């Protein structure tokens, strides 16, 4: 799936290469994108600048899953790519985690999350 010129699969933002280094090309599912969109609309707002404060897209997708379970959603799973697509469709901007040269699918967003939308996760 291409959003704002970026190739995004279910695992996240694909590397900047034609081959994508063998990363799975499965597209994010619309149901998962809808879940992430709902969480973003309810609990998040954009900041002026990209921030690392709330972690990467991968950490944020876990917040969506926790919220979805608390709402008794039948399938609360949200892929990293689905979260990224939802955020980009809502106008958030990102910076790739690890910089442009690294093959990391995660990214940071210009996002602030309300305290009632955030759950501290145990490691």
What does this protein structure show overall?
By secondary structure, the protein is of the alpha+beta class. It has one domain. The protein contains three helices and six strands, in the order βββαβααββ. It has helices at 30-43, 57-70, 80-89; strands spanning 2-3, 6-9, 12-13, 44-51, 94-96, 107-113. The strands form two sheets. It has a three-stranded antiparallel sheet, with helices on one face. A three-stranded antiparallel sheet has the order 4-6-5. Helix 1 crosses helix 2, helix 1 (30-43) crosses helix 3 (80-89) and helix 2 crosses helix 3. The longest helix has 14 residues, at 30-43. The mean pLDDT is 83.
- Average pLDDT figure: 83
Order of helices and strands: EEEHEHHEE
Q: What is the distance, rounded to the nearest whole angstrom, between the alpha carbons of the first and last residues?
A: 31 Å
Structural class: alpha+beta
Q: Which shape, going by the Cα principal axes?
A: globular
Please, what is the oligomeric state?
Answer: single chain
Name the poorly predicted regions. none
Please tally the helical runs, counting DSSP H or I stretches of 4 or more residues: 3
- Give the strand order of the largest sheet, numbering strands 1, 2, ... along the chain: 1-2-3
Residue share in β-strands: 15-25%
Major pleated sheet: 3 strands, antiparallel
């Amino acid at each position: 799936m291409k959003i704002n010129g970026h190739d995004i699969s279910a695992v996240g933002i694909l590397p900047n290469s034609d081959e994508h280094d063998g990363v799975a090309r499965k597209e994010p599912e619309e149901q998962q994108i809808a879940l992430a969109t709902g969480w973003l609309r309810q609990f998040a707002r954009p900041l002026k600048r990209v921030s690392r404060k709330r972690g990467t897209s991968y950490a944020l997708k876990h917040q969506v899953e926790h919220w979805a379970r608390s709402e008794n959603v039948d399938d609360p799973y949200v892929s990293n790519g689905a979260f990224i697509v939802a955020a980009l469709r809502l106008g958030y901007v990102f910076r790739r985690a690890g910089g442009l040269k690294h093959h990391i699918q995660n990214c940071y967003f210009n996002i602030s999350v309300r305290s009632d939308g955030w759950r501290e996760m145990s490691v």
